[in-house]
Amino acid sequence: MRKDRKRSQREDSSSSSTTIIDRNHHKKHHHNNSSPPIPPTGKPSSSAFVSYLEIPNLNPKLKLLCEIIANTPSLSVEKVLDDTGIRVSQEDVEEVLKLSYGSPGPAVKFFRWSGIQLRDRHSPYAWNLVVDLLGKNKLFDAMWDAIKSMRKEGLLSLATFASVFSSYVGADRVDEAIMTFEVMDQYGCRRDTVALNSLISAICREGKTVKAREFLRVARELVRLDADTYAILLEGWENEGDAASARQTFAQMMSDIGWDPKNVPAYDSFLTTLVKAPDGMVEVLRFLEMMKDRGCHPGVKFFKVALEECVRTGDGRSAKLLWETMIRINGLRPDTQMYNSVIALHGYLNDSDLAIRLLDEMVFNGAFPDSQSYSILLRFLIKKKRVRDASPVFAEMVKNEFVPDHEICSSAVKMYMDHGDTYMAIKVWKFMIENYKSDLEETGNTLVMGLREINRVPEAVKYAEDMIDRGIKLNSSTLSLLKQSLSKVGKGFLYDELLRKWKTR
């Protein structure tokens, strides 16, 4: 039995941005590794960052502060802020800085102004935001002044340097990002594997994976590479579609750290890169067998991409092998989108029985059919004239409050009438007139004509009258044929009444 499936204006200068950086702070704070937000990189402009104007229901106080920063020259910001009489908290400062990347000069002046209120007790996160804000606007001298002030206060963390890596790489200054990594220990931050991975991630994220690989050839003599390092590099090759380089990196990973069941992200990216390559499916299936023998496997991301590739190429055999492999992996379950892909594939390959079985088993694997699930299957069943199979699928779809599209309904009525199932034809027609207000003429006439042809003339007249009453055009040819049938049985008066309504409409 089936079960129910239910974010200004930019005005800044390097000198105005550095004013706050030279303040002496006397209070120590706890380390905070919170990373600042990373806005889009590249040439900075006010439109490149999240603005306070994009935040619905923003606190009025925060909105006013953001408006002042966005629309006031740097030299005037502190006086305008003083005139408001507003008091701020550490959290207020953080929120305002996050929304003021497009106005770095005024934002830094706000940071100094608010520091006076907070008695120089800015949160480490706010300091990281200032470093990130300056870096993303390519104000690197001011950025380093901020970092030096943070070092004096013992506030530097990996999050600070992750921001610097991202800013330099985004400005196409990879060498400076690498130099930053090389001097981290001079600032009291460990130059370890985690820091290395943060740098490599920033480089690969900007599509510069070749440079990341080149640096790793040197860095591996100083810092240990781990599974995450290779996973980051493999994701870079995946994003760049470089299967040859992915194979080289994978081989190096096997040589360095071997097979590891926990290294799912690396396997995910590697196989996803291969499957997108020309004729990559054979190679993928071979690697999957190899992984299975070693207790390793990719994640759902790979299987989703691979199944979509099977649909694109019509490769039913590979889809079955991938599906069976995925189902056997403990804790790995296909989602609704994946089910929809394979249902579509098997329908396309005329394996409607398997497509139906997949729909039925979805709920047992924690995936619930959506409108697309039913629509895909119904289209194939109707196309193949699978009358008995289409009926329960249609009923279940409607019961679960999904609306079959107009095309499906129209095709269904025709199929049912062609196969003598007037009950389902009428049921679908009633559903159509409840859910659609136009384009009903063709289907309505099909129903009336079909009823007449099987000598169910009274019902044909009933639905013809209902069409006229609803303003659905009844064709003159349909009316003429009804006249013939009614005249034969001596009920011409019914035709006269129908004609009168038809003319009136």
**Low-confidence region ranges:** 1-33, 38-43
Q: How many distinct beta strands?
A: 0
Helix amount: 55-70%
**Structural Rg:** 34 Å
Instruction: Determine the mean pLDDT.
Output: 88
What does this structure look like?
The chain has 505 residues and is mostly helical. It has 27 helices and no strands. Helix 4 runs parallel beside helix 6, helix 8 runs antiparallel to helix 9 and helix 25 runs antiparallel to helix 26. It is elongated and about 105 Å long.
List the helices and strands and how they pair.
Layout: H1 14-18, H2 60-71, H3 74-84, H4 90-98, H5 104-117, H6 124-136, H7 140-152, H8 158-170, H9 174-182, H10 193-205, H11 209-219, H12 227-240, H13 243-256, H14 264-276, H15 280-293, H16 300-313, H17 316-328, H18 336-348, H19 352-361, H20 371-383, H21 387-399, H22 406-418, H23 422-435, H24 441-453, H25 457-469, H26 476-488, H27 492-504
Observed structural traits:
repeat; elongated; PPR_rpt; 505 residues; Pentatricopeptide repeat-containing protein; 27 helices; TPR-like_helical_dom_sf; mainly alpha
Summarize the structure.
The chain has 27 helices and no strands. With 505 residues, the chain is mainly α.
